[in-house]
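WARN no homologs supplied; continuing
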Amino acid sequence: MASPVQILIVEDDEIISNLISVILEKKGYAVAGKVMTGEDAIMKAAEYQPDLVLMDISLAGALDGITAAQYIYSIFRIPVIFLTGQCDDAILTRAKAAEPYGFLLKPFTSNEIVSNIEIALYNHTIRKRYFDKAALWDMKKIMAALESVIITDTRGRIIFLNPYSCRLLDILEKDALAQPLRKVLILVNKLTGERINDPALDVIRDKIVVSYELNTVLVSLANKKRFVALTARPVKDDKNEMIGVSIQIREKTLTEIKMAEKV
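OK structure emitted
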């Protein structure tokens, strides 16, 4: 027996969110989760890997639904259907750029939700044949990785971090999301004692890959010091436009540290 389609609901009106949840479950879909902000939508999309996201456009928080949808589709390749109570030309123009699979105006009926979901799932099945599989992020591996993976937007604000990042930085996920990277990632040059530039802002400014290998010390918010190797690179969408920065941080082994001291 096939597993039910998993759908993530992103809606900051609890009454509407609960109504959608009831409709979906009555129609045989499974609700993967319900969240109220764009930041949480990205994190839960990575964690749950739902088959589809129903996304309200107007959300509280640092990221609206359109911005969150752009990251969810570009990075995770999860289809998104927009929900909105208003639709002017400006909203429609921004929404189209996020490549949604549907657009529902409130109030909507259960039949409208179901028909949009089924069409979106079918179109996504067709579109997946043309995805560049080498460019897709393996979120299961990233979530389980024993190295830090952080993604920022083009303003240097954290929009995703895997569980290991929270342990490395000594910070809770909720306290890190939407914060400027420079507030939670403190890098120091061991030889000079000076703080190293925010790698995300360097990538955003110069549009290049930035690496720190030698004499790089990460100071966590609990003041724990670790030798690390870091690489930051642009994250691009299907149009080859930069939409953010990915930062990978690996804690160095004792052998690596000793070898570096001999150089």
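The mean pLDDT is 92.
OK
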